[in-house]
Amino acid sequence: MSDTAILPKYGFCRDCLTRQSSAARRCSSCGSPRLVSHPELERLSIAHIDCDAFFAAVEKRDRPELRDKPVIIGGGKRGVVSTACYIARIRGVRSAMPMFKALEACPDSIVIKPDMEKYSEAGRQVRSLMQSLTPLVEPVSIDEAFLDLSGTESLHRKAPALVLAEFAKQVEREIGITVSVGLSYCKFLAKIASDMQKPRGFSIIGQGEAREFLADKPVTLIWGVGTASAAALEREGVRTIRQLQTMEREDLIRRFGTLGNRLFYLARGEDDRKVQPEHETKSVSAETTFDNDLTALEDLVPVLRALSETVSTRLKKAEIAGRTIVLKLKSADFRIRTRNRQLPDATRLADKIFATGLELLRKEADGTSFRLLGIGVSDLVDDARADPPDLVDHGARKRAMAELAMDALREKFGGKAVETGYTFGRSVRGKPQDPAD
Predict the structure, then answer these.
(1) Rounded distance between C-alpha atoms, residue 324 and residue 342, angstroms
(2) Hey, which of 21, 76, 189, 209 would disulfide with 184, CB 3.0 to 4.6 Å?
(3) Is residue 135 a contact partner of residue 148, using CB atoms and an 8 Å limit?
């Protein structure tokens, strides 16, 4: 590491980036208490970056009058919370919470419907800044990613920790939102660290402290341990990571299969997963939760058609297609049904997605009341191999040409410029549109 990359023993200030020359509680230059110091600060290079309350932060950025108000991003009364700002979280609102419960917890919340196009643009801006730091950026979602800054010291002339602090300041300055940074020697602990001091956090877990840091934590902190796995561990009397640290690998594998192998290594802070800059898209889908439960096929069909068109648009923009159509339904009692069918050839056309989904839906429309409907496409391939001429359905080519013509009109005049008879006068929420729409 070059001399310019070396950090002093006492770290640096996250606000003014001044390197500290003594152990103090505040920055020697600007007086800020936001100091970063750690014995392994120079050696750590695996980071997890997570945008703070991302959707809500973007809305507050664009609407300053909301800055000090509780904000929830989500659907109507029948929907769920996508994101809540930290003011709402303090009052008990959580992501994925049913909206009615969120409003009970924080009745003065301002509820905003998601604007995914705006959030995606902000996410792309953050991602672009990440990629200016290192080519090894592994996106986890629209608002978080792993970064590997190993070997970048000669490029930036700074240690990774200082580069990440500068990055966090740049995001605030240029994009108007905040991020939390977790820095460690592996992905598992970097992810844990990024959650430790939100919002605007910068937390570090070094290799020398990892095992003891993990010991008193619940087993649910381990990546991959969900509700079912936690229940299985509870039945065996295993509640803390310390207990896992005393168990033999063979014993854990015998009791819990492949999960046991993962438990053995992660409980000891051992994670050899690499930061992978590219992930292949596995599926493209769209779904909606209804304002009121729907039962009749004739009420579900317009929703299915609208969602099929949404999926088709996403596939066309990404220049991909898929062979398997997946229908998703959630009943009024929250039971989920998924049905799928594989096509002879990959498709990106709304016509084929809808037609296949409709066949599956007809079998499920048995009088059950549904609160959610979704449609998706998987087994993805390049769209150059999609939708070959259909020798059986002679009308397929005409419908495909009509669909592409509709796409062109929508691109020029907007999404509602032209509609099929399935969706005209109906909304994706499954009820007649207001005349004003």
Answers:
(1) 4
(2) 189
(3) no
Catalytic (active-site) positions:
144
- DSSP for 398-415, written as a single string: HHHHHHHHHHHHHHHH-T
In this prediction, residue 388 carries a pLDDT of: 77
Q: Measured between alpha carbons, how far apart are the two ends of the chain, in Å?
A: 62
How far from the centroid of its chain's Cα atoms is residue 59's Cα?
17
pLDDT at 200 over 90: yes
Burial class (CB in 10 A: 0-12, 13-18, 19+), 322: buried
Q: Is the dihedral of CA 93, 94, 95, 98 positive or negative?
A: negative
Task: Answer for the pair 272, 281: CB distance below 8 angstroms, yes or no.
Answer: no
| Sequence letter at residue 122 | A
Q: Which long-range contacts (CB under 8 A, 24 or more apart) does 383-387 make?
A: 383/315, 383/316, 383/319, 383/320, 383/321, 383/346, 383/348, 385/321, 385/345, 385/346, 386/321, 386/345, 386/346, 386/347, 386/348, 387/321, 387/345, 387/346, 387/347, 387/348, 387/349, 387/352
Does 345 belong to an annotated binding site?
no
Cα distance between residue 358 and residue 366, in whole Å: 14
How far is it, in rounded angstroms, from Cα 165 to Cα 168?
5
Which domains, and CATH codes, for the chain?
54-116 (3.40.1170.60), 210-267 (1.10.150.20), 283-413 (3.30.1490.100)
Are 311 and 375 in contact, with CB atoms under 8 Å apart? Answer: yes
Q: CA–CA separation, 201 vs 14, rounded Å?
A: 10
Q: Is position 50 annotated in a ligand binding site?
A: yes
How confident is the prediction for the chain on average, in pLDDT? 87
101-130 pLDDT, tens digit per residue, is 999 999 999 999 999 889 999 999 999 999
